[in-house]
Amino acid sequence: MQNNTDFPLLFEQTKPGRTGYSLPPLDVPETDLSEVFESDYIRSEQAELPELSELQIIRHYTALSRRNYGVDSGFYPLGSCTMKYNPKINEDVIRMDGFSHVHPYQDPKTAQGALELMFDLQEQLKEITGMHEVSLQPAAGAHGEWTGLMMIRALHEKNGETQRTKVIVPDSAHGTNPASATVAGFESVTVKSNEQGLVDLDDLRRVVGEDTAALMLTNPNTLGLFEKDILEMAKIVHEAGGKLYYDGANLNAIMGYTRPGDMGFDVVHLNLHKTFTGPHGGGGPGSGPVGVSEELAAFLPKPIVRRSGGEIILDEDRPDSIGRVKPYYGNFGINVRAYTYIRTMGPEGLKRVSEYAVLNANYMMRRLSEAFDLPYAQHCKHEFVLSGRRQKKLGVRTLDMAKRLLDFGYHPPTIYFPLNVEEALMIEPTETEAKETLDSFIDTMLEIAADAEQNPEIVQEAPHTTVVSRMDETTAARKPILRYIPE
Amino acid sequence: MEFRYLPMTEQDKEEMLQMIGVEDTEELFSDIPEEVRLRAPLGIKEPKSEGELKAELAGLANRNVTMKTHASFLGAGVYDHYIPSIVDHVISRSEFYTAYTPYQPEISQGELQAIFEFQTMIAELTGMDVANSSMYDGGTALAEAATLSAGHTKKRKIIVSEAVHPESRQVIDSYGRGQHLEIVTVPHKEGLTDLQALEELVDENTASVIIQYPNFFGQVEPLADIRKIIDTQPKTMMVVSSNPLALGYLTPPGSFGADIVVGDTQVFGIPAQFGGPHCGYFASTAKLMRKLPGRLVGQTKDEEGRRGFVLTLQAREQHIRRDKATSNICSNQALNALASSVAMSALGKKGVAEMAHLNIQKAQYMKKQLEAHGLQVVFQGAFFNELVIKIDDDADALNDHLVTQGFIGGYHLGRTDDRLKNHILVAVTEQRTKEQIDTFVREVAAVHAKQH
Prior knowledge:
With 487 residues, chain A is of the alpha/beta class. Chain A is built from 15 helices and twelve strands. In chain A, helix 2 packs antiparallel against helix 10, helix 4 runs parallel beside helix 10 and helix 10 crosses helix 13. Chain B is α/β, with parallel strands linked by helices and 452 residues long.
């Protein structure tokens, strides 16, 4: 039901007879379709889509965009999401006809420009990650995780080690890790973190065994800390016969400083929509290429983009491949953007990206530790986690502080994640923010911390300035309304 | 060297290092063991200036034949359709494309409402109760539908029609291996799912039957008859993959009792982009609402009673359920769902029907022209905008010739089906003019005649 104060839906503005499209008239002799289709198969009632003029539609979506917040709107320190600037040249390049309007099934000889770009992107990603071969097929990070795990499974099966049914994930891992393990047919086992926020090596030694298929790890981990014992961990897992999986969610911290391949990882996925500036798009599309060691290369999804003589081909002849994980060749449009970014930055640029991502995070961490608990005090990498437990004792929860940030025009940090930190606030500034931006955000956070002590209501009741206040999420889930239904 | 995306000055850096209490940034990386430190520069290409890079990439782009340089009669899941100009203008608003997933509803009402509208339009077109906020593409959506049906019915056998897109079938196979599903193919016969074979295959272990409507050959599958066969088993589900544009004219799968309808909205406002990103959709009956994969937007109220939207039923999803989740999807195709929403809004109730009708009429005209020129159109059932021609010549050689004449030819079905060697799947959309169709048919016929 629509109140006067409600922002109207498309369907509430519709009026029969209005049109927002322009189609050509039928220029061929008309066929009597009643002779072609059985009447039961001809739609009797049209789908209730809106009927609006072009300007009405533009006004609608323009107004909706103003009720939304992107990186171009303001600072977005959302931990583990790498909300960096999305360069405009990327958007121009993908909109070139020669990239936008190429059909995946046209003869590869007529799409050499597109294939050349894909091939060269694979080459660049191989070098950045230190892996032997790369496939651009997976559509997103979670899809890459699943693809990587399916390859590990195929390898173990080929070696006759079908008893390797368990995937080890740290307690700080992103939810997609255990979910991907399940979807790939594995069982997840959790390995604990120690007091320094790193994987507990003794616990790892305890959980590995003949049933270990793989250990999934981000490095730096979800707390933003570098797993300095990575070589020992690799040894423990490899000696037990398992494989090491690298979740590339946090690659932004280490480019040019170290590489997953050099750390002993066997499979890597990357999130091109994070580190490599494919925009997040309000939730997608992403792109989640996988890189593998030589041992796993035969299992990559098909087709493989490779050079053969003078041309680039799509190689389907891969007998050990895990098969196809997605129709066509991956999210090419996002891959074009990532390629444009890599070519803009080059080797020195990418290293400086990680240098500044880490510098910014450490700077913010030190300044904010004045008012917030810092559970892990060592230097962080590209992100860090604070705890709001001091403020919680005053009756102000992390959620309240996050909502209060909205009043100051900021997107809040990631909250209540990772799960092993109480009242967690996970902050990732990225390298593209100016020091002035970091300072104003820090000042605001300190002001909120002060309010939590002196004036808690203003924080507890936030936000005060947004187009809607806090939403009733309980009712939304109990009595779901997932589509518009006319009254 | 200076980088335009990196704003820190030397002075900023000095101040920050001092605040942190370290000499240089190297110290911040001292926890990386020396054995794994990369001491040489990355061996990737050196950077280029904005202008130089744009010129280089334009050079690469210009090496491709495109659906703008050539008239495309190629479909097979990806089509050349009218994209209203407003689509790109809307999705180019950076409040949309530079936003993250709308987990903060107070500052994400725009995205959330747009997705709620998308869910509504998909539910309307498919004739289903609910739809989610999008999937990667039609192929993975179908694989997730297979998984859902197995989980819901607690059965492992999935019957997939051979008239489903071959790459979607391969994706179902890959997912099925992970989930230990038994994937069984029911063959096609004269361009349609073989109903007799289907009857023999459906049994008490069958979780679902997967049909494409219109199918990969463009033919309209008899969903009513298929539903009757499925109904011989009380729990078996009907999963239909549908081109949503075709549903502007055809009776939607929901009216035939489909349990799940999936597909790709590339037909609405999304360019081909060499195969992706496109946009999968996933619609179902209300009964399955709490088992859907992916994000869902729901309507609710704020503290002042104002209508608003949130991501809801998140207890289904990986970030809550972790290893108990039945799908691992996280990122979806939100921006492309927005593009399709804008295209569907522009076309509207009347335009979607009109565009579907134009496709059917032009494809019918093409069929008549082909037959008039002595070419064999092999399947004789009702079809949407694709048809199959059998030629005596080598299909790939024909396509090579067509490119020289300004056309992108059809899809050679022999690529994935030995029985259909030198059968070509040709798509005719509203974008093709009578003149283009006539010339295309003449060219195909001329090559064909040369062989006789």
